[in-house]
């Protein structure tokens, strides 16, 4: 099951984006279908459904805050993973 961080929330528009920690891509999700409250920068696990015009995150679940996933940016704006994902082993 993919995991990542909540990178954007737009309650007024009804959607948000999760930054997938493995592929470093953004996956859209609908706020109305969340089963629990999530906040910006929460670490989550999710499933992906392929829909037109792209991938959608579903079954989003908050993970423990012990394992942070953080990103910094190169001088040219590219993101680099700087944190750890998983149980640290």
């Amino acid at each position: 099951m993919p995991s990542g961080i909540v990178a954007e929330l737009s309650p007024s528009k009804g959607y948000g984006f999760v930054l997938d920690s493995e592929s470093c891509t953004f996956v859209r999700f609908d706020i109305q279908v969340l089963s629990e409250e999530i906040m910006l920068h929460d670490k989550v696990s999710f499933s992906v459904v392929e829909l037109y015009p792209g991938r959608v995150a579903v079954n989003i679940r908050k993970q423990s805050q012990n394992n942070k996933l953080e990103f910094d940016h190169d001088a040219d704006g590219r993101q680099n993973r700087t944190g750890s994902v998983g149980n640290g082993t």
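The two ends are 18 Å apart (CA to CA). Residues 3-81 form a domain with the OB fold (Dihydrolipoamide Acetyltransferase, E2P) fold (CATH 2.40.50.140).
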